[in-house]
Structure formats: C-alpha cells, structure tokens
Specification:
Strand content: 15-25%
Oligomer: single chain
Order of helices and strands: EHHEHE
Shape: globular
Largest sheet: 3 strands, parallel
Strand order of the largest sheet: 1-2-3
Distance between the termini: 23 Å
C-alpha cells in the first residue's frame, strides 16, 4: 500500500513568516487539492486557512494521540 501525505509542523513565528510566502500557501493549497493527507501542528492552522484548506478526515492534528 502506498501512502501520500504531507506534514506542516511550524511554530507561531514560523507560520507568521510563511503566511507572507506565496509558495508556502500554494504548497498547502496544492496538497489539499491533490487529496494528500495533511498532518499539522496547531500553529499551522492560519496557513491552512489562508490556503483555503477545509478541515476534513484527511487532516490530522499531530499533537493529538
């Protein structure tokens, strides 16, 4: 079986910097658009929201067991 996923793990400061980078926003948007599972830290939520990512079963908060 093949798994295809991304992990976006950032600090608050790191996310703030990425919110100004079109490539980072496009990365998150493309991952969602191509139906990749997205693991994320809670601090990454502003980036995901800016990219238009809608929470679904393919999104996993990596801080929750």
């Amino acid at each position: 079986m093949i798994f295809d996923a991304v992990a976006i793990v950032v600090s608050d400061e790191g996310c703030g910097a990425l919110l100004k980078e079109g490539a980072a926003i496009d990365f998150a948007k493309d991952a969602f658009g191509h139906l990749k599972a997205i693991g994320h830290s809670p601090q990454a939520l502003p980036l995901l929201q800016k990219a238009g990512v809608q929470p679904d079963a393919g999104m996993v908060d990596l801080t929750k067991g």
